[in-house]
Amino acid sequence: QLHAVESGGGSVQPGGSLSLSCLVSGFTVLDYYAIGWFRQAPGKEREGVACISGNGRTAHYADSVSGRFTIAIDNDKNTVDLQMNSLQPEDTAVYYCAVDLMLGAAVQDMCNTPGDFTSWGQGTQVTVSS
Question: Which residue intervals of 31-97 are DSSP H helices?
Fold first, then answer.
């Protein structure tokens, strides 16, 4: 059974940086999976932030974070990390990690459709405020 457990997050001033980590377990070969970071702000729908194929070859970023956020796989630790730079108040949200089999789907399409993921972490709060 797939599991995703987030760590990191917290509070930071605008322009600051934070790093999130997602520990993934329960898979046989990670290459067959997509792993994504999503966020949900109060009163808003959950949105894809950054997603990556399990082999690390394909990544997709939301326009709002492209150039500021970086998603990467650490195969030694079985984690998928999200480095967030130049954070702004509009980045404030609960951030979730999710993982699921790709089954031929494109990473971008899965990232744009949170419902494609069935295994979710509990979420971690990121607050950007002065």
Answer: none
> In Å, how far are 29, 33, 36, 44, 130 from 26, measured between CA atoms?
10, 11, 16, 31, 40
Q: Report the Cα 21 to chain-centroid distance in Å.
A: 8
Per-residue confidence in pLDDT tens, the chain, 130 aa: 889 999 999 999 999 999 999 999 988 888 899 999 999 999 999 999 999 999 999 999 999 999 999 999 999 999 999 999 999 999 999 999 999 998 888 999 999 999 989 999 999 999 999 9
- Token pair for 59: 């990544």
Q: Give me the residue label for tokens 């001033």.
A: 13
Q: Locate tokens 């404030």: which residue?
A: 92
